Every structure is written in structure tokens, then in C-alpha cells.
Amino acid sequence: MTDKSLERAATPEESWSDEGANEDGEWLVEGIVAEEVDLDGTKRYEVQWGGGWSRPDGTNTTWMSSIPGREDLVQTWDRKQKQMRKDLAKVDSAIPLPDTLSVHLWRTELRAHAFDERMSKVPTSPSERSAAGWDEEVELAQQLPLKMENRALRPRSRPYSSPARQSSSHKPRSKDDLAASHHESSSTPCRESSVHSPSNSSSIPAVSPGLTSSPKSRRQVVQEMWNKATEKYRWKKAIEKAPAPVLIVNEIDDEEVPPGSETFEYLENNYCWEPDLDPHMSVDDALFTACDCTICHDPSKCDCQVPSELKDDHGQKISAYSDDGLFLFHVPGGVEVLECNKCCRCEIACSNRVAQKPRDVGIEIFKTLQRGWAARATHDLEVGKVLGIYTGKVIRRGDVASLDANHLDYVFDLDGKEDDDGGDVSVDGRFSVDSYNHGNWTRFINHSCDPNLVVYSVVYDTIPELNVPYLAFAAKDVIPAGTELTIDYLGSSSGDVEKRNMSQVQACLCGSQNCRGWL
Ligand SMILES: C[S@@+](CC[C@H](N)C(=O)[O-])C[C@H]1O[C@@H](n2cnc3c(N)ncnc32)[C@H](O)[C@@H]1O
């Protein structure tokens, strides 16, 4: 594919006679009809020529980065576009954004493909993008002072009721080479340098080493850093594929990247933790219950499902997913989905490996008018589509209280098996995930009282007894590309607010018809 917007059409001066020029031989500009933003942030305007001039094929526009002598046209155009974006941003987050924005999204996709082309790799599908060039480019941009907002609340996972736990039978098995054939990534101790520190390895020179091109914008640098991090989560053998890209878009104001982005450690599909949690988090392979299936169609015959509590009305074990990997929404509160794990023999294509697969949907982190940054997908999503997992730093629940207040908005409790009093989960066994300094795109998912995503607990690279499942996000409805992705921070609990200090409650600006008014 060719990025048409970057082709430079011949101007009338270059290709055509003077017919259509005014008496001074100057060409008349009728106006600007479109704009395009290049990968490095450079704008181009599609200029329509006046004077009745047109090419033989009827076209009469040219892409130009400036219009000498008609800067007024550029200013007026920029002002109107800014206003239009503001108006668009006022649209209720629960309502799909209008077509004008889809055009933008489509162009964003085109730009991503154009980038791939320039890096000499033609992507074969929208979700397959090249890593070429990241290595030279990702050495990071200028370190700017970061202003972190002080917020009070934290999103909580659904407060499930806690069913009686059955004791799991574990069938130790020897290691085989399967682990190596699956994803390279596993959860790791947190990278200390990513905690805000001006002198750490994430400091960003103004110009990328080895490149003579102009300095990169902060947006570009952060985006590249994050996408390079997703590259680590590449599946070998059957699927030579990294997750789809994450892009940063601001159509509202001049904030280039979300606060703290430059020092943020992007973790696409794994947790990190402090060394003191290592004995808890590092699980010996011998403790995994693994299956010998090739493709796991029948959970009742799948050894790794022995500890699973996901059953039908007759007590038969059932799968959380359809054969084509869509979430089926019959996982009751308190039940964790057990996906095939690194010791199972099944293929990567197994229908019981879903939340753990590299994300095949592109994500845009975009600025909203009143709710900070948010997330949306660049493709239409079908019901049950699983988008990814909440990642970040695993901490003991007891340590949440001592976090800085601005972390609390980004703390998700792993409380799926707990009831209001913690149930049969011991105090020492309660954990939370802090995605303030470490995490992935899901930390930008805002709250809606009428959300379009559901959250469920899933286990695959640890064992259920450790109580550190991942929280996975699945589309509750058909979600058109460009629609903000939202969850209900309070799950189904309406009583939860009574336990909260009311001074912590924030006004909800989700704009849905059944908005509770707070979150
Ligand atoms: C996990 S963060 C979501 C990402 C956040 N918007 C950002 O810019 O980083 C949660 C915070 O986002 C804001 N937020 C999310 N949903 C909101 C809503 N419906 N109304 C108002 N603010 C919201 C609140 O400040 C909340 O504490």
C-alpha cells in the first residue's frame, strides 16, 4: 500500500501553462480542503487551486506544508479544526464517535502502514506491524518536568462473592520444550529505573542517536518506547507475531503524552513486583497442572482444568471461550478462568489460550475533554472479543494505604475471590496491582456507568492458589472502531460506596443515561 497523502502532487507552476494564473502570474488558492499529519508530527494541507484551473483528470488540489502569502488560510483552518475536535470530544463516551473521526482513525492506520513501508516491511495484516527501526529510534527524547495529578479513588475489580474453594489436585509434570515455544515474556521484578528518576536509563536525548532527521516529538518517542516494549511479547513458532500497536492521539489540546509517560515501564502482558514478593510470585513448573491435549476442545478431558470451578448446571466443566476465542460471559462471580499454561502441551492456537495471546487489535490512547486520557480500539470489536489484561506492579493489599495518593486511581484490587470481609482469602494473600509507574494501555480505561467492557479473572502463568490472577477485558457489546472503551469501576456492587470515605468520591462524567453521578 502507498501512503497517498505523502505523495506530492505536481503544482500548477511545475506542470501546466499559465492559464488560470492572475495577471501577475500568481496562482490563486481557493482554500484548504484537508490536512494530514506525518509520523514526525509535520502537518500538510491539501490546497485547492482557484482560477478555474484543474488537471486533465479533473483534480485541482496539491499537498503543501505551508502556503506562502496565505498563512491566514492556515490559521483559520487550524482554528476550525481545533473547534471541531472540541465539539467531537463533547460526544457522550458511550456513543460511537461520528464518521469524521473514523476518517482520522483510518488515516492513522495509513500512517502506521506507511511507516512500515518506509522501514521496508509491508505488513500483511492490520495487526501485524514491523519492529524495524524501533531499535535505532527508541533511545528516547527530552526529559521534561512531569506534573502528576493528585487523585483520590482507585478502581476496584468486581467485588465478587466468595464461593467455597475446592482443593485443587496438582499433577506434577516434567518440563518439556513447550515453554520455550510459547511467549518469551513472564512476570518479572519491577525495573527500578522506571520509577521517576531524572538520571535513569530512560532519560531521553533530544535527537535520536544515529539519525540525522529532526528531533522527535515526545508523542513519537513515547509511542515508540511502548511499542518496542510490546515487541518483547512476541510468540515464537506458530505465530511469529507481536501485539498490535498502541498510538497516542490528542485532538483536544497541546498535551503531547499522558503525564509520566517517559518514565513509565510498559508491560504488555506481565506483572512486575518488588524482590520481596519474589518467593510468592515465582512458581516452579512442577506446581503447574498441565494438559496433554493438542487442541483443548473439552475442558472435562483437559487435565489443566482439574482445579477449574467453571461448570454448567450439571456440574460438567465448560470453557470460558468459544472455539474461535470469544469470551462467552458465563463465568460467575468468584470464579477464575484457567487458561492453558506454559506447561500444557497444546498448540498456541488452542482455544483455551485467549487472554494470553498477543493483542491483535490496535489501541489509541486519546485525550478526552473532561476525563483525562482514555482508550479506544482502531478496529470494530465483536461481542466477546478479549482485548488484553491489566498489568502493573503487584503489591500486597496492606501496602496500598501507604502509596502516594496519585497512585490510587491506578490501583486495581485482585479481589475476585473475596467477599466484603475478604472471605477465606487470608490477609497476607490479598494483592493489588498498581499501574501508576508500570503497566499497559488498560490503565487508561475510564469508568462508565454503562460500560462496553467486562472484566474477569484469568490465570495462566501462575497457579490459582497464589491469588494473583490477571484481570482480562472483553467486549460486552459490538464496539465500533473509535468508540471509547470503558469498564464499571464498581462492578455490580452498589453498596460499595457506603464503605468509602465520601470525600474520596469523584463526580462521574461518563454521560450515560443511567449515570450514577459518582465513581
Ligand atoms: C485508571 S484512571 C483512567 C485514566 C485517566 N483518565 C488518565 O488520564 O490517566 C482513573 C481516573 O480517570 C478519571 N476518570 C475515569 N472515568 C471517569 C469518569 N467517568 N468521570 C470522571 N473522571 C473519570 C478519574 O480521574 C479517575 O480517577
UniProtKB/TrEMBL annotation:
Annotated GO CC locations: chromosome; nucleus
One Pfam family from the record: Pre-SET
Lineage: Eukaryota, Fungi, Dikarya, Basidiomycota, Agaricomycotina
Biased composition annotated in UniProt, kind: Basic and acidic residues: 1-11, 174-185
PANTHER family given in the database record: HISTONE-LYSINE N-METHYLTRANSFERASE SET-23, HISTONE-LYSINE N-METHYLTRANSFERASE SUV39H
Biased composition (Low complexity): 158-167, 195-209
Gene3D superfamilies: 2.40.50.40, SET domain
Domain Post-SET: start-end pairs: 504-519
Predominant subcellular localization, coarse grouping: nucleus
Localisation per UniProt entry: Chromosome
Biased composition (Acidic residues): 15-25
Domain SET: 361-490
Any coiled-coil regions, as ranges: none
Region of interest: Disordered: 1-25, 145-223
Name of the protein this chain belongs to: SET domain-containing protein
Assigned keywords, A-Z: Chromosome, Metal-binding, Methyltransferase, S-adenosyl-L-methionine, Transferase, Zinc
GO biological process, one term: methylation
Highest taxon above the source species: Eukaryota
GO-annotated molecular function: histone methyltransferase activity; zinc ion binding
Domain Pre-SET: residue ranges: 289-358
